[in-house]
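Structure in, sequence out. Go:
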C-alpha cells in the first residue's frame, strides 16, 4: 500500500440536498477523504438512497466542495439486478413529500454539478482497479451492493484480488433495539448481496444493528464545521436538515452514522468488535425478502436453508474511539 495508506474505492448512493434523504454517505466520503490512513482511488455510484442522477450529482458536488477534483467518479447501476424497486422508490418519495422535510430543505438546493462523471461504468472501474493491484484495494460499499456484485459477475477474480470488502449493510439481530430487521441496502438488491456473500471475498459487514448505536448531534456538527470554510458550510447545510428531521420523526438525539462507521472500520478495525459468522440473505419469502441470516460456522441451520459465506460481522462499536476518529477526519477535510 502506497505510503502505508490503504487504497480504497468508495461505492455509494449519496444525497447532497434531496429532501428527506439520509446524508450519511456524504459524511462517509468526507471521512474517507480526511482519514490519514486512507487513499481514495475512485468513487462508484449506485441508485439506492436516491436515484442515480441525484446520487451522481451529489458525489460530484461533494468532491467539488472538498476540492478533490482529481478523484474519478463513475456511474453505476440505476436499478437492482432482479428486484423491482418500485415499492422502495415510493417510500423514499413519500418521505421527501413529508411537509416537515419540505420545510427543512426549503433553502437547500437540489444537488447539481457542471462536472461529468468519468468514462467507463462503475463495475468495470472496480474490476480494472482491483486486478491491476492485487491485494491492495479495499472496497467500501455503503449503498446497495449492485455495482460490487456486477464486478464480481464480470470478473470472479475480483474476489481473490481485492484486499477486502468492508460494507455497510445487513442486520444480524433482527428487530432488537427497535430497528428494522430488514436493512435498507440489502433490501434494495438482495440478489446482489447474495452474489457478494457467496463470492469467497474477504468480507466485513457493518450492519444496522451496530450503526444505530452511533449518533451525530447538532452540537457535534456545529463543532466539526466551526472552521467556516466553503466545505464546512456545505456539510452543515446538507446535514442540519437531516438531523432535525430524524430528531422530530424518530425522537433520536441525532442522525445515525451508518456509512461513516464502515469507512472508519476499514481504516481502524479496533473501532468495532467482529465475529466470524456464516451470512446469507433470504430471497424467497415474501415477508422476509432481503433479510440477512447468520449462524456460527459449523452449526446446523435450525430448519432454515442458509446459502452464503463467511463474513466478519461487526457485533459492537466503541463509540468513543469511533467519534475520536470520525470527527477529526471530517474536520481535517473541511480545514484542508
Amino acid at each position: 500500500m502506497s505510503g502505508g495508506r490503504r487504497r480504497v474505492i468508495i461505492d455509494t448512493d449519496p444525497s447532497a440536498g434531496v429532501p428527506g434523504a439520509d446524508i450519511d454517505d456524504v459524511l462517509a466520503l468526507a471521512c474517507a477523504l480526511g482519514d490519514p490512513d486512507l487513499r481514495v482511488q475512485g468513487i462508484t455510484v449506485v441508485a439506492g438512497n436516491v436515484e442515480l442522477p441525484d446520487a451522481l450529482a451529489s458525489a460530484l458536488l461533494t468532491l467539488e466542495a472538498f476540492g478533490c477534483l482529481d478523484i474519478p467518479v463513475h456511474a453505476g447501476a440505476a436499478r437492482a439486478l432482479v428486484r423491482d424497486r418500485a415499492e422502495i422508490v415510493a417510500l423514499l418519495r413519500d418521505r421527501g413529500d413529508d411537509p416537515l422535510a419540505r420545510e427543512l430543505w426549503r433553502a437547500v438546493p437540489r444537488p447539481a454539478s457542471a462536472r461529468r462523471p468519468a468514462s467507463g461504468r462503475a463495475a468495470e472501474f472496480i474490476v480494472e482497479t482491483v486486478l491491476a493491484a492485487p491485494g491492495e484495494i479495499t472496497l467500501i460499499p455503503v449503498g446497495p451492493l449492485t455495482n460490487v456484485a456486477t464486478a464480481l459477475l464480470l470478473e470472479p477474480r475480483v474476489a481473490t484480488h481485492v484486499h477486502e470488502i468492508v460494507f455497510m449493510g445487513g442486520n444480524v439481530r433482527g428487530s432488537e433495539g427497535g430497528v428494522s430487521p430488514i436493512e435498507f441496502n440489502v433490501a434494495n438488491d438482495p440478489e446482489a448481496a447474495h452474489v457478494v456473500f457467496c463470492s469467497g471475498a474477504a468480507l466485513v459487514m457493518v450492519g444496522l444493528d451496530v450503526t444505530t448505536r452511533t449518533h451525530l448531534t447538532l452540537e457535534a456538527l456545529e463543532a466539526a464545521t466551526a472552521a467556516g470554510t466553503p466545505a464546512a458550510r456545505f456539510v452543515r447545510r446538507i446535514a442540519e436538515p437531516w438531523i432535525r428531521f430524524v430528531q422530530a420523526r424518530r425522537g433520536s438525539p441525532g442522525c445515525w452514522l451508518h456509512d461513516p462507521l464502515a469507512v472508519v472500520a476499514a481504516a481502524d478495525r479496533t473501532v468495532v468488535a467482529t465475529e466470524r459468522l456464516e451470512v446469507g440473505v433470504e430471497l424467497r419469502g415474501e415477508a422476509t425478502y432481503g433479510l440477512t441470516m447468520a449462524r456460527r460456522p459449523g452449526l446446523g441451520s435450525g430448519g432454515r436453508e442458509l446459502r452464503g459465506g463467511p463474513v466478519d460481522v461487526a457485533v459492537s462499536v466503541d463509540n468513543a474511539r469511533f467519534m475520536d476518529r470520525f470527527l477529526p477526519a471530517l474536520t481535517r477535510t473541511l480545514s484542508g
